[in-house]
Amino acid sequence: MTQIRRALFISRKDIESYYSKPPLVTWGLLFPAVLILAVYLKDPATYLAVAPGIIGMTLLFGNTSMAAIVVTFEKRSGTMQRLLLTPVTHRTIVLGKAASAALYGIATSLILTLAIVFLLGMRFVSPLVFAAALILGAATFSLIGIIASVLVREVFEAMTLMNFFRFPILFVSGVFVPVASLPAWLKPLAFLSPLTHVVELIRFSLTGTCYFPSPWIPALVICAFLVASSLIADAAFRRAATR
Amino acid sequence: MPNVNGKFIAKISGLTKNYGTLTALSDVTFSVERGELFGYLGPNGAGKTTTINILCGLLQRDAGTVNLCGLDIDQSPVSIKQRIGVVPEESNLYPELTCRRNLEYLAELYGLPRAVRRTRTEELLAAFDLSDRATTPFRALSRGMKRRLTVAAALVHSPEVLFLDEPTSGLDVPSARDLRSMIQDANRRGTTIFLTTHNLAEAESLCHRILILVKGRVVSQGTADEIRRRAEKAKSLSVAFSRAAPEKSLTDECPAILSASLAEGYYRLEVADLHAALDQLLAFSRRQGIRILEITTVTPTLEDAFVAILNERSQAGDAHP
Description:
The complex is a heterodimer of chains A (243) and B (321). Chain A is mainly α and 243 residues long. Chain A has one domain (2-241). In chain A, 81% of the residues lie in helices and 0% in strands. The longest helix of chain A has 31 residues, at 47-77. Chain A starts with a helix and ends with a helix. Chain B has 321 residues and is an alpha/beta fold. Chain B has 2 domains: 8-229, P-loop containing nucleotide triphosphate hydrolases (Rossmann fold, 3-Layer(aba) Sandwich); 233-299, Alpha-Beta Plaits (2-Layer Sandwich). Helices cover 37% and strands 28% of the residues of chain B. Chain B is built from 11 helices and 14 strands. Classes of the chains: A mainly alpha (243), B alpha/beta (321). At the A-B interface, helix 1 and helix 4 of A face helix 2 and helix 3 of B.
């Protein structure tokens, strides 16, 4: 309980220091908002096909970037060492850092989604599934960002490393091209991408349909990704923190 | 259960750390008594920061045991962190947070209750003369103020042991003096202080006991007086002659004089045997027809002792590069 409280203090401090800055929120929203608008202006009837992908992409980019930037920045500035000197476990630090990055991702994705709802008239079929997709996706992507941050020394290195992972998976995860339309040889890659499952879960919450026969499948796969990324982030952080 | 009544608050045994083929620490063994101000001295690269990083749980050791505040570092790393405070070599508080928020945040992480957090923060800001800077972000402080706030932050949870890594490094004279006084105040209030420094005058004036580390090995430990005495194999004389005498002839004609150097009219003579050197010096002055105006024995400073120890290690082929 004490360690969970301390993780909350770490998250609150990070939100205060980094995530509540208006330029950061704007940065996280601007690109996906423009993308949705462009699709809508081209053909108002089809924007709903790409909206789940773009919401998922916002979550992926926002969370992986911010978690990686914050941890790498704190490593460079020495404040991570300060945190490691306090009576918090490595798991607590990972939890605190991931939770604040996840909240940022959820907030930006939610603002984007609400904007689409109010401006373009999008409807929710299942708000609960939508919430689950955002929470599970945000947590998984934040932990992936933390894993990247412990592998590098500089912020730009973290971004480069993340882009090697993020850009290729954009094309196989049903963001712009539906999974059903992918060639057979690319489908295994799509199933290995956590973004695919987040996007399909969001798609189900907005349209009532998804690529998988049941929304439980992507939900369970994201849970598995979450557990795996949590274990890897914990081990990687522990290893990096006590060389 | 920690052994809180023991005489020693830190017991370090056989501490060894290698970075690849480089041995940073080799079989380092020492103890720190509860309530003492312990100086951990050494030239740059001796292994001082490596030691602190291991003791604070930031670095894994290759061998040895570490017991702090009655707890084993492998079994209770988090409990040890709750009992120690650390001032790293670089002031590393959160640049964007104000002085007050920095202290409050650390108080939160150390588990201080809300009401205590507020009181303790204000107390420390006042004690470290930073009350008027309470709302200033850390990044906007001067170097001296940053250092003071970093020490205050390390004391926020009233630790049993405070580790200070080169605390006055890079500070101007008044700031360094203020900080030394604050360190002594913390020690008087019962905090055990573990101070690493290469400022020998600082160690001599502050520390109850000192350990000298050279190239990862303990070469001497004890009080400043004990270390000086151990290094007094070569005693020193200060001599003024009625006229200049060639330094080389002094060492050539007086075998008991190991080295001679002239500064401000006085010859500083390092001698192997005091009585023999005095006899030889009198004979030398008669032969040269010069009078001895003044002769005094020189008490070596800790710095002299430190240099003597380094030279000794150098001659033994185990010197700091």
